[in-house]
Design goal:
Growth Hormone, Chain: A, 75% helix, mainly alpha, 2 domains
């Protein structure tokens, strides 16, 4: 069975066949992203068990998370270009095979160093999954169908992101933390089976392009930018090393100072290179498209907050509140339920009414939820201290994610959907990478109750900033997506 044409559904006798093809493609896109999102969240509740078995303290826990995010954030941009240049299905297959191999290596890792190395490799493979899966959706569906499909994808994949701690907790308590990584093989095998015989032709630009399309049409065809990838990886890795080790060693330590200087120089070199190369992995011209630029600015703060909250909540509930890994995972289950029930509906509603109000209200609701977690005390009671905040976080996340994804990807024409998805995902992961690396500084060196409270306040502040940026910059109509709008469509600062 082949993919439905890029222009949307067929008509007449082919309508039912096209609908079946669309359902298959949506299922593949969900499963492929499910693997990456599941692994990104399942690790949270396994961290205490990993540290107990392999040692290394908080630093090991941070590196288990950030090693994956470093290569994911660095190579997801290259993956978006590969998806546009060589086809979504081919890149998906490669990513799934690599992710499975890395997952098995993690599951049998004898030391923390081997585990972290395998996590670096897993991040490279994970980078191939999300841009290609979202590009399959944006090149297959159009209009309200696209918004609804993105909402369904959001419900399933974000549901996986927050359901991961439940599964990770069960596997850690009943078997071993190693099974939390080996479990990836099951959805990978199912997705590879569904991919058999599927082809996905590259979409072509519509004959009558919108101003946003014309703005990004002038950008060159995606190519593989290896110098950019190397500079980005070096910059992120060195900067994260400095941020993680600084609370322990101090800024004056030679390792921290050299890493910080190297990271800053490499990231500056990356931006300089991207502004001058003919085939950038980060096409800066995209940020002149209003909803894409402002949407990614909001993404930086929202997803940085989510990563910070996910880390501190998963770890504190075990090490501070005394819950088991399973109980800590189940604590976030209400978020999963709300996402599954509401994301598709919110996506369809935002497709009709525009994303601005949703992208503003959602982060503010989440900020209120984060502040409600200040009720957590030494005498821990989940129902009264944690559940109200978790419910608010789930409601706000449901309102936010599908409209944000649709606003950002809908601003760029389908032929560039792979790199557009990659840029948005890279920004989200890098934001999480930075906030996780800063946890030692945020919590004051130890994740005790006071440190947990400080982290929730920082989470709330980041979410308020994300909602404010969305209200200031996002526009609901096509005019609001033009490059250089008269209402001040400025390119936001890249993080």
């Amino acid at each position: 069975m082949s993919e439905a044409p890029a222009g949307g559904r067929q008509s007449g006798d082919d309508a039912s066949r096209a609908t079946a093809a669309e359902r298959r493609i949506l299922t593949i896109a969900i499963l492929a992203s499910f693997v990456a999102f599941l692994d990104g969240s399942i690790v949270t509740v396994a961290l205490p068990a990993v540290e107990r078995e392999l040692g290394g303290g908080v630093s090991t826990q941070q590196w288990v998370v950030d090693a994956y995010l470093i290569t994911l954030g660095a190579f997801i941009l290259v993956a978006g270009a590969l998806s546009d240049a060589f086809g979504r299905v081919r890149i998906l297959r490669l990513g799934l095979l690599g992710f499975g191999a890395a997952s098995l290596a993690i599951a049998v890792a004898p030391t923390a160093e081997v585990l972290i190395g395998a996590r670096l490799a897993q991040g490279v493979a994970g980078a191939l999954l999300v841009p290609s899966s979202l590009a399959l959706i944006t090149s297959t569906f159009r209009g309200a169908d696209q918004a609804r499909a993105i909402g369904t994808w959001t419900a399933a994949t974000t549901g996986a992101f927050v359901a991961g701690p439940v599964l990770g907790g069960l596997l850690t308590d009943l078997a071993s933390w190693r099974w939390a990584f080996a479990i990836n093989i099951l959805p990978i095998a199912v997705t590879l089976a569904l991919l058999r015989g599927l082809t996905a032709p590259s979409p072509s630009l519509a004959p009558q392009a919108s101003p946003a399309t014309q703005a990004s049409r002038a950008m060159p065809r995606a190519r593989v930018d290896l110098p950019g990838a190397l500079l980005c990886s070096l910059g992120l890795g060195a900067a994260v090393l400095a941020l993680i080790e600084q609370p322990r060693l101090g800024w004056g330590h030679p390792l921290v100072a050299a890493s910080a200087a190297t990271g800053a120089a490499a990231l500056a070199g990356f931006l300089w290179h991207e502004s001058r190369t003919a085939h950038p992995m980060l096409p800066l011209a995209m940020f002149r498209v209003r909803n894409f630029g402002w949407g990614n600015a909001a993404t930086t703060f929202v997803y940085g907050a989510l990563a910070l909250n996910g880390f501190v909540l998963g770890v504190y509930l075990q090490q501070g509140a005394g819950l088991s890994a399973t109980q800590a995972g189940l604590a976030s289950l209400p978020i999963t339920v709300l996402m599954i029930l509401g994301s598709s509906r919110i996506g369809a509603l935002a497709g009709r009414r525009g994303p601005r109000a949703f992208m503003t209200a959602g982060p503010l609701i989440m900020a209120a939820g984060a502040l409600l977690l200040l009720a957590v005390d030494t005498d821990f009671a989940y129902a009264t201290q944690a559940l109200p905040g978790i419910l608010a976080l789930g409601a706000g996340l449901t309102v936010t994610v599908a409209p944000l994804t649709a606003a950002v990807l809908g601003a760029i024409e389908p032929a560039r959907s792979g790199i557009a998805s990659a840029v948005n995902n890279a920004i989200a992961r890098i934001a999480g990478l930075i906030t996780v690396a800063l946890i030692g500084t945020i919590v004051g060196g130890e994740l005790d109750l006071a440190g947990f409270h400080r982290a929730t306040v920082v989470t709330a502040a980041l979410l308020v900033a994300g909602g404010t940026l969305a209200w200031a910059g996002i526009r609901n109509d096509a005019k609001g997506q033009e490059s250089g709008s008269s209402e001040g469509a400025r390119r936001p600062d890249e993080s």
